UniProtKB/TrEMBL annotation:
Organism, as annotated: Artemisia annua
Gene3D superfamilies: 3.40.50.12670, alpha/beta hydrolase (3.40.50.1820)
Protein's recorded name: Peptidase S10, serine carboxypeptidase, Alpha/Beta hydrolase fold protein
Similarity annotation: Belongs to the peptidase S10 family.
UniProt key word Protease: yes
Cleaved signal peptide residues: 1-21
Superkingdom: Eukaryota
Record GO biological process: proteolysis; secondary metabolic process
One Pfam family, short name: Peptidase_S10
Keyword Protease appears in the UniProt entry: yes
Keyword list, A-Z: Carboxypeptidase, Glycoprotein, Hydrolase, Protease, Signal
GO molecular function (one): serine-type carboxypeptidase activity
């Protein structure tokens, strides 16, 4: 009997039936009729005594679930619920703004769902994110390394409980702050296989969208990006670069010339939306290098203390639409009792679903938040380790993102000293239109494709869903982008 067949046999014995922590969701409030895709929700315990209960949504591929890749998608923050991805980025459903059904926002199918080409796990991680919870107060505090370790543990247990996906190629994917943990998780899965952990997972690589990777370098790159897109003048850019010695994120507060330059920069970019420079700016004034938080939307205050502002259907093109208002629909939907019941959320474990838990969310310059420690400054070293693996990587960036600019992403990619192969800033197309630019790299058995998404902001699939779907579809199928 082969190793793989033996593993399948053992795992089948472990999970001959669905456990009580799994729910097959046939219908959802807000959507008319049965769901036309297979949705499973549930919990998997991780950490000491499995005290951290991670909640997930799992959608089987609508294409060929037996052979399509198995991917996990991680939201940013940290601490942002994965419903953001489910409704606004790569998920099978969209919210119909201004429309209601079953006393909740109405839902419709998303034609650009990545579930058409992949089996997708949407994970609420780390603990106290979304519907995830802990049975032990000592497990509340998480960190970059702890979150990565627990997510790797989750994935190995997931395939143990779903043995029919043991052979599917597995990819660790996500966006924004998850760029810190994605390569750590991926390396941990490879390492676990090397050490003989069971079950063996068919890890093939990873993908990061607008990924925060080198915290200092990514923040520093905002200044160059602002200059490149004509938000600040050449004179101000050069003066700031010289006076601050190229380091703005950690500039010496006693360097008066540098501080004055940074103040001048912030005056210029203050009214600009840092997540999508062409969008209306509905947030407080942008501060380019002081603070700055990938995926800033979300509110920790309760619905009662901070009533949700709902949008009517758009009436005129002159209306200013703030994306924060769109996310409020997800908050309203997720906090409905019937929704929680349909999803199989354990009663009493979550008092209120939050788009993002602000007790975790990253702020540059702070070593920690009440529920999260930012203990990895840069994950580039983990990318370097993965270059020694038989591994595929895709990194993509919305080119209108000033939060984690593509110029900083390209800088750390260049530091890996890979060889450019078939494309060097070549145009890639969707529907015969330029969708962005791509560069492909390789070293031995490692390959990395980097692509910009033209016109997209920080969470690229949210702004350019069709283009990002086509990008992922081609990459998963090992086709040229």
């Amino acid at each position: 009997m082969s190793r793989l067949m033996f593993l399948v046999f053992i795992v089948l014995l472990w999970s001959s039936t669905l456990t009580a922590s799994q729910t097959i969701v046939k219908t959802l409030p807000g959507y008319p009729g049965p769901l036309p895709f297979k949705l499973e929700t549930g919990y998997i315990g991780v950490g000491a005594n499995e005290s951290v209960q991670l909640f997930y949504y799992f959608v089987e591929s609508e294409g060929n679930p037996e052979e399509d890749p198995l991917i996990i998608w991680l939201a940013g923050g940290p601490g942002c619920g994965t419903l953001r991805a489910f409704f606004f980025e790569i998920g099978p459903m969209q919210i119909q703004y201004g429309n209601y059904m079953d006393n909740v926002p109405a839902l419709a199918l998303d034609p650009n769902s990545w579930t058409k080409v992949a089996n997708v796990i949407y994970l609420d991680a780390p603990t106290l994110t979304g519907y995830s919870y802990t049975t032990n107060p000592e497990s509340v505090l998480s960190s970059d390394t702890k979150s990565a370790s627990q997510t790797a543990e989750f994935l190995r247990k997931f395939v143990r409980d779903h043995p029919k996906f043991l052979k599917n190629p597995m990819y660790v994917t996500g966006i924004s702050y998850s760029g810190i943990v994605i390569p750590i998780i991926t390396e941990e899965l490879y390492k676990g296989n090397d050490e003989g952990l069971e079950p063996f997972v068919n890890i093939q690589g990873y993908m990061g969208g607008n990924p925060l990777t080198d915290k200092t370098g990514d923040i520093n790159s905002r200044l160059e990006y602002a200059y490149r897109v004509a938000l600040i003048s050449a004179e101000l850019f050069e003066a700031t670069r010289q006076d601050c010695n190229g380091d703005y994120a950690e500039a010496d507060s006693n360097n008066l010339r540098c501080m004055l330059d940074i103040d001048e920069v912030n005056k210029r970019v203050g009214p600009i939306n840092i997540q999508q420079i062409l969008d209306p700016d509905c947030q407080p004034a942008t501060n380019l290098v002081r603070g700055g938080n990938p995926v800033t939307m979300g509110n920790r205050r309760t619905l009662r203390a901070d009533p949700i502002k709902m949008l009517l259907a758009r009436s005129t093109l002159k209306d200013t639409i703030c994306r924060d208002n769109y996310y409020n629909y997800a908050t309203l939907w997720a906090n409905d009792e019937n929704v929680m019941k349909a999803l199989g959320v354990r009663e009493g474990t979550v008092k209120e679903w939050l788009l993002c838990n602000l007790d975790m969310k990253y702020n540059y310059g702070k070593p920690s938040m009440p529920q999260y420690e930012f203990n990895v400054r840069s994950s580039v070293a983990y990318h370097e380790r993965l270059t020694k693996r038989n591994c595929r990587a895709l990194i993509f960036s919305g080119d209108h993102d000033m939060m984690v600019p593509h110029v900083g992403t390209r800088t750390w990619i260049n530091s890996l000293n890979l060889t450019i192969t078939t494309s060097n800033w070549a145009t890639w197309y969707v529907n015969d239109q330029a969708a962005g630019y791509k560069t492909t790299f390789a070293r031995d058995n490692y390959t990395l494709a980097f692509a910009t998404v033209k016109g997209a902001g920080h969470t690229a699939p949210e702004f350019k869903p069709a283009e990002c779907f086509e990008l992922a579809k081609r990459w998963f199928a090992n086709r040229p982008i």
